[in-house]
Each structure stands twice: as C-alpha cells, then as structure tokens.
C-alpha cells in the first residue's frame, strides 16, 4: 500500500491528515479488516513525517475505533465495517430431553478427503499453518533414538508429556499434577472415555445448542439422550435452563466446549464459569469440559478453563493438540477429577495406551520447539483469516445475514432469515466444489438451525476462498430471491 505525499493544509494538523488518508483506504476497502497497517518506521519514511506524527495518527484511528494495536505485532484494521451484520441471539432449541438423530454428518466427513472440495465445513486446521516440518524431524529423531517407542507404556501415557501438559494447564488457571492426567487419542477419545466413566446408557446429558456434530454422534453411540440448552454466542448456555434441568433430577452429566466453542465461538466469562461450577457442585453432577480451542484466543491472555473454578473436583477436563499442532497425531489428554481412575480404567480396557512416538515428539516440541512462538503466529493468522471471511460475508452475502464475531478459534456461525434452507445451500455448494456445515447437524433433534450454517476460517486465505465465498453469497441470495 502506498499513500501519496501529503499536501499543506490550513485546517488540519499533519497527524490528522495522515489518519484521514488511512481512513479513506479503510473505507474504500484497500485496507481490509484484519490487514496490518504499515509499520510506523515505514510510514514515516514514505510520507516524510516524524515518528510522533505517525504514532499520533495511529492513536487517533484507534480512538475512532478503526484500528487496534496487537502486542509486538503492530496495528491492524478492526471489524468496524462489519457492524452492519448483526450477531445471532440466544438460540431456541427444543429445551427438552430428546434422543439424538443425526444423518448428514457422515456425508460431511466423507467429502473431507476430496482434494477438489473447498473445506469450509469441518473445523479442520490447514497443514500450512502447522509446524509440520519440525514435527516430522522430531518424529524421525524419536524413531531413531527411542527404542521405547516400540514398547508398552502405562495407560496414563508418557510422564514427560504429562508434565509438559500440566505446565501448560497453569495458563488456563489449573494446577493439575501429572499423575492426574491421562494421555488419549485426541480430545475425542478423552470425551468418549469420560462419558463412559460417568454415565450409563439412557442417561441424559446437558449440552449447549448448537453443539459440535461429532460430539452428538458420540453421545448417540453411547445411547445417551440430551437436554439441549438455549445458548448465546457471547454469554454461553442459559444457566437458568441448566438449573431447571438439574433440579428436575433428570440430568446425569453436562458436556460443554468452554472456550471459543464450535460452532458458536462462545467463550464464557470467568464469572459465568464460576457460577456454572457452583451449580454443578450443588447438584453433584459431573461436567465434562472440552477445551480444544482455549489456546487460540486473539487478544489478551488465555481464557481460563472451567476446571480452574472446580473446588469439588467434579470437572473432567479434556483437550488436545489437534487444533494447534496436528490433528493427525491424535494426541489429547484428560484430567478426570474425582472420576480419574474410572477414566484411566476405560482407556486401559479400550486400547491399553496411546502410541508412544507421537507422545515423545510432541513432548519435545512443547518443551523446546518454540510452541509459544508458533501459537502467537497461529493466533494472528487465524484472526486475520477470520476478519477476511467476515469481510467477504459483508461483501457478498445478503444484508440480512447474522454472523458471530468470536474472539478466538476458527469457526463462524451464520444465521439467515427464517425459511432459508441451509441443507439446500449445502447441496448447491457441494455441486460447485464447496463444503459447508449446515445447521441441523449441530442440533440433537436434527430439526433446529435449518436456516444456519458454520464456516471454517482456518484455511489460508486465497483467491480460491474469496471466490468460494462469492459463490456461497450468490447461492444464498438466489435462494432468498426465489423463496422470500
Ligand atoms: C469442539 C471440538 N471438540 C473436539 C474436537 C476433536 O478433537 P480431537 O481431534 O483432538 O479429537 C473438535 C474438532 O473439530 C472440536 O471442534
């Protein structure tokens, strides 16, 4: 981006002129939400102005709410232009106990491996953003130097990995001894084992609604029913509905994604997390926490885990490296609180232990592979990509589109006017080589969220993605023109 030289002005001081120039670039779309502004040094040279003129200009743009500073990274264009798109409000699932009906999920998974399909449906990170080369080197080193990679281990998993995980959990506000951690095949297995440990078939589990479709499949496979709670994209589940469900005595456990949930992107406030734990403690009901997105916050510090507020040891914490390092290594963990031994027992009877080589490689990466540096980069990348996608929604989608504005993770949830058919959009889009995640697959009854769909923002932004967004917007407009 180049700005033309400034001209003398009677009524505006220099820094205001610089700010106005940049504002023009933002308004005409040259600088898009999520774009990084030129460094202060670069702009100072380009415009032949002083350092303080540029810093003052940036400060003014911050005051105008157009840009924001990110520590050690620079200034970025904010999502101001997107305020025209409202956020979805509190969801209204059928707040009653129901059996789980899923149908489309396997179709979505089956096209996941098709190279020609643009995967905007499943929340899969792109290998381009993951430290694939260093992990490959570490895997090769492990196989060369660690004969124990070919032996049995204890079900709990490698102690050094558990120590590394335990250190990282301090950032989430949890002080967990490595002996109270179990290494699993991804978060998914951790959740499956936890559910097995605390429920029996026919039990009812309270969940947020919408909920990640693979979790619904897991609940269904275990013959569990759900109580779907109304959920706000910002505030999270309705605690009053949860309390009513707990008071009825018909809920045997609760399963929640605590930070930047999939698909709503919800990150509950600390106070809400605390109240939630108090509620579960009062009714002595276990809570299974899925925190796979906790480290993918865009601003500030890592949000706390629900487990951080657990005074009664009734929260089972589950997470993994699938969203930050590699989904393919299948490495997750679980801290089962007072149910821990039951969870470990289930792991040992199911598959005895997780493969050792990925555990050793990930241990080395966490200990001294630059994990924090990688995370900083990943967060910036995901934030920028999410902004790009939000901008594309602004540019191409019907004005009536409501969309979430999560502060982390990599999923957006879009809500179209009632009567819109997201399954129709899914079919139309797939014919054009684009996969989306239609709303009903996130609903236990399979009947809610027909007008909603989720988009994965983890793919590197490119002309191909931009075009895919344009196509989706066009298909959405076409459907609305015919049906509304
Ligand atoms: C909320 C949530 N939990 C769990 C998982 C799966 O995690 P893992 O690959 O570690 O099993 C996903 C993957 O998309 C997810 O979105």
From TrEMBL:
Keywords: Aminotransferase, DNA-binding, Pyridoxal phosphate, Transcription, Transcription regulation, Transferase. One of its GO terms (molecular function) is pyridoxal phosphate binding. The keyword Membrane does not apply. SUPFAM superfamilies: PLP-dependent transferases, Winged helix' DNA-binding domain. Residues 12-80 form the HTH gntR-type domain. Gene3D superfamilies: Aspartate Aminotransferase, domain 1, Type I PLP-dependent aspartate aminotransferase-like (Major domain), Winged helix-like DNA-binding domain superfamily/Winged helix DNA-binding domain. PROSITE patterns: HTH_GNTR (PS50949). It comes from the Bacteria. In the C-terminal section; belongs to the class-I pyridoxal-phosphate-dependent aminotransferase family. This is PLP-dependent aminotransferase family protein. It comes from Halomicronema hongdechloris C2206.
């Amino acid at each position: 981006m180049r700005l033309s030289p400034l001209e003398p002005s009677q009524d505006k001081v220099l820094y205001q002129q610089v700010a106005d120039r940049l504002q023009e670039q933002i308004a005409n779309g040259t600088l898009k939400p999520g774009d990084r502004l030129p460094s202060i040094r670069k702009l100072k040279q380009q415009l032949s102005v002083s350092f303080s003129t540029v810093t003052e200009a940036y400060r003014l743009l911050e005051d105008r709410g157009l840009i924001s500073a990110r520590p050690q990274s620079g200034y970025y264009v904010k999502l101001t232009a997107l305020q025209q798109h409202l956020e979805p409000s509190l969801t209204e699932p059928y707040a009653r106990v129901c059996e789980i009906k899923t149908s489309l999920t396997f179709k979505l998974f089956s096209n996941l491996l098709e190279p020609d399909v643009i995967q905007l449906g499943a929340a899969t990170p792109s290998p381009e953003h993951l430290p694939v080369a260093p992990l490959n080197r570490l895997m090769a080193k492990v196989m060369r130097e660690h004969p124990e990679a070919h032996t049995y281990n204890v079900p709990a998993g490698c102690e050094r990995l558990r120590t590394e995980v335990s250190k990282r959990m301090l950032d989430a506000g949890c002080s967990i001894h490595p002996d109270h951690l179990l290494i699993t095949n991804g978060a998914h297995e951790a959740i499956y084992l936890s559910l097995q440990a605390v429920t029996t078939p026919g039990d009812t589990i309270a969940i947020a609604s919408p909920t990640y479709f693979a979790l619904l499949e897991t609940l269904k496979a275990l013959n569990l029913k759900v109580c779907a709670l109304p959920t706000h994209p910002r505030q999270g589940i309705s605690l009053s509905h949860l309390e009513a469900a707990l008071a009825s005595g018909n809920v045997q456990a609760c399963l929640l994604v605590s930070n930047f949930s999939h698909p709503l992107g919800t990150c509950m406030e600390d106070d809400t997390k605390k109240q939630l734990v108090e509620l579960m403690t009062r009714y002595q009901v276990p809570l299974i926490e899925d925190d796979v997105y906790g480290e993918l916050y865009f601003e500030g510090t890592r949000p706390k885990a629900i487990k951080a507020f657990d005074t009664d040891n009734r929260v089972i914490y589950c997470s993994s490296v699938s969203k930050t390092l590699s989904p393919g290594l299948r490495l997750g963990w679980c801290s089962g609180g007072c149910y821990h031994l039951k969870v470990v027992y289930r792991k040992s009877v199911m598959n005895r232990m997780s493969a050792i080589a990925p555990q050793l490689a990930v241990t080395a990466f966490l200990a001294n592979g630059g994990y924090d540096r990688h995370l900083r980069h990943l967060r910036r990348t995901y934030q920028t990509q999410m902004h790009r996608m939000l901008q594309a929604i602004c540019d191409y989608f019907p004005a009536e589109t409501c969309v979430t504005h999560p502060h982390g993770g990599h999923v957006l949830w879009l809500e179209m006017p009632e009567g819109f058919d997201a399954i129709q959009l899914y079919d139309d889009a797939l014919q054009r080589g684009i996969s989306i995640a239609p709303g009903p697959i996130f609903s236990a009854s399979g009947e809610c969220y027909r007008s909603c769909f989720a988009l994965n923002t983890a793919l590197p932004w490119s002309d191909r993605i931009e075009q895919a967004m344009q196509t989706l917007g066009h298909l959405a407009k076409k459907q609305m023109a015919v049906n509304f």
